[in-house]
Design brief:
By secondary structure, the chain is of the alpha+beta class. The protein has two helices and three strands; from the N terminus they run βαβαβ. It starts with a strand and ends with a strand.
Length: 61
């Protein structure tokens, strides 16, 4: 599996409850927080819902 780095770039103010829950489930609290994940269908689905709030980068190993 490929690894991806997800970085929160926008605030969740005025976002829907579903979007806020997905950002929280990814473990992103503050703007510019980053986490590294395996690119599983579960993670990619969460990223798709909040794609306007996060930046996704593929990490080469």
């Amino acid at each position: 599996m490929a690894k991806i780095r997800i970085t929160k770039i926008k605030s969740t103010n005025k976002s829907t409850d579903k979007q806020k829950a997905n950002v929280e489930a990814l473990g992103l609290k503050k703007i510019r927080d980053s986490k590294v994940f395996e690119a599983t269908p579960d993670i990619l689905g969460k990223v798709k819902v909040v794609s306007h709030l996060v930046k996704v980068e593929e990490i080469s190993e």
